[in-house]
Amino acid sequence: MASKRQQWISCNRPRGEHVIFQEYKSAKRNFRRELRNAYQKHMQETYNSLEKDFDIDQKRLWSFLNKNKKSKSCLSRLIVNGRQCSTQDDILDGWAEHFESIFKQNTETEPVSDKERAITKTVEVAHKDFRGTFYNNTKLNITVNEVEKVLKCLKNNKASGLDNIEYEHLKYGGNSLRNHMTKLFNLVCYNFYSPKSWKSSLIVPLFKGGNKCKSDPNSYRGISLAPCIGKVLDKIIDLKLELKKDNKCFPNPQQTAYQQCLSRGILVTDIHISSPVQADDIALISTNCCNMQTMVTICENYSIDWKFKFNPLKSIQLNFSKSKQHTDILLYNSSIQLEISARHVGVLLNSNLNSMDRTLQACRTLRSSALGLIKSGLHPSVISIDTCNRIVRQVCFTKAFFGCELWTEITNTEILLLERAQRYVCKSIQGLPRQTRSDMVNALIGWKSAESYIDERKLLFLGKLVLMKDSMLPKQIFLTRAMEFKYNCVETPAWIYS
């Protein structure tokens, strides 16, 4: 085609029925046809290899599907303290101003509390004792084997900090680098001083998702990328501290540092379950408002002692009692807002015990996630229906039915909605028209009903409870409730209601 084009240009680019022009157009059509055929052949080979490697290398499959997604548009506008930032430099300055206001230290002089004095004294004594015994006690020294052990466990393809040193540089740097790192870490521990560059992080804002405003900086979560070499030292010290931890006290069954004081919440016989915690999400449970206010006050005083603060605007309360009489719960003299429903650790809770909103959300999630995969290239015309089926069951159903182990008293209307959403997805991944009979689409690929899937998840959850260690809090609650049910100690789960 290139030679025909050069020949056409040398003849002053004739048009119409000219022989050279017709030969050039014919060569151009042939070139485009061959290009399309080569692309289709390449994509077919890619899909075939992905199909074979689905159970072996799923990372390759997801990287391919993510590349085919529509590219997300960059942030074009940011509003910081009422000021609108539109240019790139203004947006960067706006982010800097926002995060500086968040991490700004309190310059107000506050009286030093007794707890702060005790902590300062304990740290000084530990520094003095440790400094004198560091080189004399070989158990405290960081060895090359410990450094090598931590380096082997580091993951690849992780972001670096401001120094642009990644985990791969440290892992594959050789014996010489590991020896120098060992000497450096021992010097840091001996002198109780870490380089200032290890304390500088690169903050990356990540959108929290949902229907939040993208121009509001509060809709983003700042992720700090610290230097990798500093994180390696943290992991080594953490391994040494693991040997000093008292397994009887750590980790605490409820993961809260102040749960021993929270004795006014819910009791199942003699088991306290007043403050279950998942990561940094704290839930306080109580049978009356007075005890709840006491528990909130305990958390408030604890945060004041340890120099951090809860956000009253992001805290909510749910009232599950039959009486909807509202009593203000105060946190830092601000009333915690009362809501009808809220999402905790991914599970939607409704104070009216109405599960219809939860079911509608599950249906929407199932449809949208399945269509998103199909638009990314997961289509039955290029990948076998069996592979599409496994991916949808693994991804879409897990996402839509998250927490279905706790779904109780599902109405027939809700089951019908879930079945419709499942049949819609089943038709989509098989490439069937929407007018296809609904009673046969599930049987074509061996799908069970949505109700059967929920029952299966409940049985698996029961199996995990049974196989738990007896010392774990969920197992203790399960055994207590099972004994109450067996011996009819209580007619209804009264501990749920106030």
Automatic annotation (TrEMBL):
The protein's name: Reverse transcriptase domain-containing protein
Lineage of the species this protein comes from: Eukaryota, Metazoa, Spiralia, Lophotrochozoa, Mollusca
Organism encoding this protein: Mytilus edulis
